[in-house]
């Protein structure tokens, strides 16, 4: 089968890869659409220790079920599905508490196992969910991540929020903040094209830190600080700015994932009783909610200027475009 294989830092090769036998309890999908995630950009740059080349990445995807293992019946055979790529053990303490994303034995399709940057991908049958549209279906995974982050900061009606980063995770966080009743939402991004897209997703204020001082603009608009922040970038500077932009008693969720150290001002955190939450991936319940949101049409009124579709064969060029920071798209999907 054709596959886009990450072979070394900043190098993807489009090559023919043999298909393996199906494992018991698994099914095979013909991939229809697969998104490029920000964490995969870090992996592509060799900055993510979880991903080791050679690897077929791709964990945000949809496909048609074309084959099943002999030991199972499967009602979705021949149907369009999306897949929860996070496979947990189901037995440990965190799994039993409904925190499957924190399972020490977790395996993620496209990270620890071969992913969907290919014509076909094998997945556990019980990780499949029926969807109506292949492209929106491939967005369930980032939508679940975003839902979890926004719920971590307990957005309430009338709140003022900030989202650092207008990639797809950031945009989806804005959408959920608005849905949960946020009155004002500040979007912050250095890419002006993506920043302008934020208005369609619920942002009321836009800040490009390359053109203006972000903290000064925040304090000018909201002198007492904001209620909640989601940092979908994950740099040391954005984490510190997130802390400094909050009102006393405010909440921040760090969802941007980089393996760089961060220095935060402890006295601000302590004296202002700032609540800091890590937000990693999603639990099974989050994913199920995201499937329902997508099938109910949550994303269908947003147009498609934020989304571009490319051939899988052109995947390396798409990665290069995204890491340059010049792409005007918040999400690029590859189509085998």
TrEMBL record:
Gene3D superfamilies: Medium-chain alcohol dehydrogenases, catalytic domain (3.90.180.10), NAD(P)-binding Rossmann-like Domain (3.40.50.720). InterPro entries: ADH-like_C (IPR013149), ADH-like_N (IPR013154), ADH_Zn_CS (IPR002328), GroES-like_sf (IPR011032), NAD(P)-bd_dom_sf (IPR036291), Zn_alcohol_dh (IPR050129). Residues 169-295 form the Alcohol dehydrogenase-like C-terminal domain. Its cofactor is Zn(2+). This is Galactitol-1-phosphate 5-dehydrogenase. The lineage of its organism: Bacteria, Bacillati, Bacillota, Bacilli, Bacillales. Belongs to the zinc-containing alcohol dehydrogenase family. The keyword Zinc applies.
């Amino acid at each position: 089968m054709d596959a886009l294989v990450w072979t070394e830092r900043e190098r993807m090769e489009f090559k023919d890869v043999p298909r393996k036998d199906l494992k018991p309890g698994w099914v095979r999908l013909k991939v229809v659409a697969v998104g490029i995630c920000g964490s995969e950009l870090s992996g592509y740059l060799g900055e993510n220790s979880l991903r080791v080349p050679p690897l077929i990445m791709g964990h945000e995807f949809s496909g048609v079920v074309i084959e099943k293992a002999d030991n199972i019946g499967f009602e979705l055979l021949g149907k369009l599905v999306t897949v929860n790529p996070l496979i947990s053990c189901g037995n440990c303490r965190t799994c039993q508490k409904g925190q499957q994303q924190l399972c020490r034995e977790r395996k993620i399709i496209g990270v620890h196992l071969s992913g969907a940057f290919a014509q076909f991908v094998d997945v556990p049958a019980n990780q499949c969910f029926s969807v109506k549209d292949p492209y929106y279906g491939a967005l369930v995974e980032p939508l679940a991540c975003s839902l979890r982050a926004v719920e971590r900061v307990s957005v309430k009606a009338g709140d003022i929020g900030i989202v650092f980063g207008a990639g797809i995770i950031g945009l989806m966080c804005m959408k959920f903040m608005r849905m949960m009743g946020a009155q004002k939402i500040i979007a912050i991004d250095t890419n002006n094209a993506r920043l302008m897209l934020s208005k369609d997703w619920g942002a009321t204020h836009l800040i490009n830190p390359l053109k203006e001082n972000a903290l000064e603009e925040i304090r000018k608009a909201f002198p007492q600080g904001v209620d909640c922040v989601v940092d979908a970038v994950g740099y040391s500077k954005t984490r510190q700015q997130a802390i400094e932009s909050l009102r006393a008693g405010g909440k921040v969720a760090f969802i941007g994932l980089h393996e760089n150290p961060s220095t935060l001002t402890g006295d601000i955190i302590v004296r202002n009783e700032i609540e800091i939450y890590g937000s990693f991936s999603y639990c099974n319940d989050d994913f199920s909610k995201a499937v329902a949101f997508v099938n109910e049409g949550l994303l269908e009124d947003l147009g498609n200027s934020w989304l571009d579709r490319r051939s899988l064969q052109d995947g390396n060029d798409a990665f290069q475009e995204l890491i340059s920071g010049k792409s005007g798209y918040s999400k690029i999907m590859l189509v085998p």
